[in-house]
Structures are given as structure tokens and as C-alpha cells.
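hey so i finally got around to running the thing on that chain from the lab meeting. sorry it took forever, my laptop kept dying and i had to restart like 3 times. anyway pasting the input first so we r on the same page abt which one it is
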Amino acid sequence: MTASRTNATGFQLLFGLALLTAAGFALTPEPVALPKVALADKWAHLATYVLLAFLADASWPEHGFDGQKWVLLLGYGVLIELIQSQIPNREFSLADMLANASGIAFYSFLVRRALCKLGIR
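ok and heres what got predicted. didnt touch it at all, straight out
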């Protein structure tokens, strides 16, 4: 499926909204309540970054999922962690950054390839 300029613009708007939503959840002094599942916070990070990676990829399809998109997403995660370190009830977490990177890698190496095989990407 070839992405049109209109589709890319729509995905860019969704990507911006997703970045703002993720920042809102991440930067509130009181963390969002998650289900009582082992490592729920890390699963939430992983899922968030799979979604962000998909939206970044779909927003600029002419570039593929290149290193620039990896750096943008990883940098966003580091920035969020640095800001969190200054917010009461929040802390800087290398484990969160690892979960973020895992989500990006999961998208890049598994989800994206599956979408390509299905003719969606």
C-alpha cells in the first residue's frame, strides 16, 4: 500500500498527538494506575514505543524506518526520563529507557516486517 501525502499528514498529526499524550502521562506527579501485572510499567513503555515507532514510520514513509527515527524516539525517551527526575514522585529509570528501546526494536524488526509481508507497509 503506497502512502499518499494526505495519509502521511494524518499520521504526522497522530504522531504529534501521541507524543503529547505520552508526555502528559509521563510527566504528571502521580503515576497512572496500571493493572497488577508483573512489570506492567515496562510493558506500558514497550507498547507506547511500538506505537510511536509505527506512527513515526507512517508519518515519513519515504525515509523508511531509518536511524534518524531511532534517534528521535530514543532521544524523546531520554528527555522524558530527565524531566521526570525533576518531578516529585517520579525518577530517572534506565529500565524504562531499555523498555522504550525494546519497543522500537520490536517494531523495527518484527512488526514492520509483518506489515510489509501483509502489504500494509
